Amino acid sequence: MNLSRLGLSALQNAQQNLQITGHNISNSKVEGYNRQTVLSQTAGAQNIGAGYVGRGVQAVTVQRAYDSFVWNQLVQSQSAGAALITYGTEIGQVNNLFGDRTVGISPAIQNFFDAMNAVASSPSDPDARQELLGRAQSLVTQFNNAQSSLQAQRDNLNTQVRTTVSQINSYVERIHDMNQQITAAKAATPDHSPNDLLDQREQLVMELNQLVDVKVIEQDGVFNLTLSNGQVLLGGSQVFPLQAQTSTSDPSKVVVAYTAAFEDGVGKTVQLQDSNFKGGQLGGLLKYRSESLDATQNYLGRLAIGITSAINAVHAEGFDLAGNAGGDFFRIELGKPIPSNKSGSSPAPDLNIELGDANKLTGSDYQVEFRNGEYSVKTLPNGPTKVFTPAEAEAGFEIDGVKFKFDDAATAVEGDSWLVQPTRNAAGRIELVLDDPAKVAAAGKDKDGNPLGSANGDIALKLAALQEQRTMGNGTLNFNEAYSQLVNKVAVQAQQNATAAKAQANLIQQNYASQQRISGVNEDEEVLNLDKFLQQYRAASRMIEVSSNMFDTLLGLRN
């Protein structure tokens, strides 16, 4: 081994180190890039009889600074953080909607009962009666507007679910393409890793986890992806895309489904439960909808029904200025059951619901199913289940203040089901019936049942007293308390999420710092490496120059 070849090996090694150092500096701000280094070793030695003389240095490979455990921790924490941020954004809108006690439903309730007290004090005063109807309409408008805002958020959430699912599928396809590129690169150079391709693939996985929590199973250098429930998104060379579709049980929801099988070339989709998605933006959206938005609309509707029922019941006891019995003050509709005929063999029987006792309403939804010759009614999401025979179902039964009654209950087939949401959209269906101040039934009656006259305000006084009476929640809540319970529930959820998000942000920061200590590029260190390898390059060049001078000297001796 001559000095020239020793110098050349050192020169090449220094050049490779300079290139990788420059590559590190160039990508120091690139997300997902892992610092690279040249792994060098001695080129061995040659036995010259008098001992072994070294053959120089050689580069074995280029390796990246990477720890899969630390990387996975960072990815998982970021996925959980994305879910919390998304949840917080959505619930923040509702918290702002209900949080201001100076506007909205709370002051509208107070103003309505103040006006009712005014009528009780001056039953024959047309201005007081007109003011009452104005306040009543304002209360209706506040309920309608709040419901409209919540429904708009639900519609926007459905759009976000569709968009997010589309983005998830796009990322899975890109990761699949990266798998193919990495496999081809490894086949071409089996002893070396395509570091930049590996970085790009892991960055895609990290970004995918911002959308949905996925698990990575690596097999022979290929990434396979599954959801937290085990549903495969990418397995080997096959992509299994998700689908966003309208729920078969609840048309107001867009849910996520996957293709389970194909029949005659047509895919059969199966809906996934919202609870299957724990992290990422999708997990945050679905958790917010199931835990907060649904309950908020239900509780708001329960309050609207409670006010309507109590006011109408007392108003019916009174008499207006013409001496006529009072009619309905407000009108409201319960949600119609949503049938799902799973067998498709015959129409499902009609299920009718009506209000039994508003005081017993819980704000729950119910899933009714016909199985094994019986009707089961489950209180959603995790409440008790009650069972009824077809005869009982046709005769009618009551659960939580809601009356259920089937037409032709015996015609149901196995698998028929109905989703019942009695209070879900009720706040948007409340209306003011009275349009004539003279028809406010403020007067009571004597012992013989005769009206006490236009100057009497007994019923108006009784109506005003409803504000403080606990006519909701099985006698535990008045109207203001029921609304405060709703507002406080939203506020607590928002605060809990904010606290969790702050803690998660700290965890992400810690995990990121740990990952960067291992894989990040320190520009100051790389600048020092440039000087070090530049000195090596110069020394190797000098070695080659010395070898050339020695060769020239030998040639001069010969001449």
Q: Overall pLDDT, averaged?
A: 91
Structural class: alpha+beta
Based on Cα principal axes, name the global outline.
elongated
Low-confidence stretches: none
Give the number of DSSP strands: 21
Describe the main β-sheet briefly: 5 strands, antiparallel
Helix content: 40-55%
Radius of gyration: 37 Å
Number of helices: 10
Strand content: 15-25%
For the terminal residues, how far apart are their CA atoms?
25 Å
Strand ordering within the main sheet = 13-20-15-16-17
Keywords:
single chain, 559 residues, alpha+beta, five-stranded antiparallel β-sheet, four-stranded antiparallel β-sheet, 10 helices, 21 strands
What do you see in this structure?
It is a single chain. With 559 residues, the chain is α+β, with helices and mostly antiparallel strands. Among the domains are: 3-65 and 520-558; 175-278, no CATH class; 335-422, no CATH class. It is 50% helix and 18% strand. The chain has helices at residues 3-26, 68-99, 105-121, 126-188, 195-211, 280-315, 390-395, 458-465, 479-519, 523-558, and strands at residues 36-42, 45-47, 52-54, 57-64, 214-219, 222-227, 232-235, 238-239, 242-246, 254-263, 266-271, 330-331, 338-340, 351-355, 365-371, 374-380, 385-388, 397-399, 402-406, 417-420, 431-432. The chain has a 5-stranded antiparallel β-sheet. A 4-stranded antiparallel β-sheet has the order 5-6-7-8, with helices on one face. Strand 2 (45-47) and strand 3 (52-54) form a beta hairpin. It is elongated, with a radius of gyration of 37 Å. The two termini are 25 Å apart. The mean pLDDT is 91.
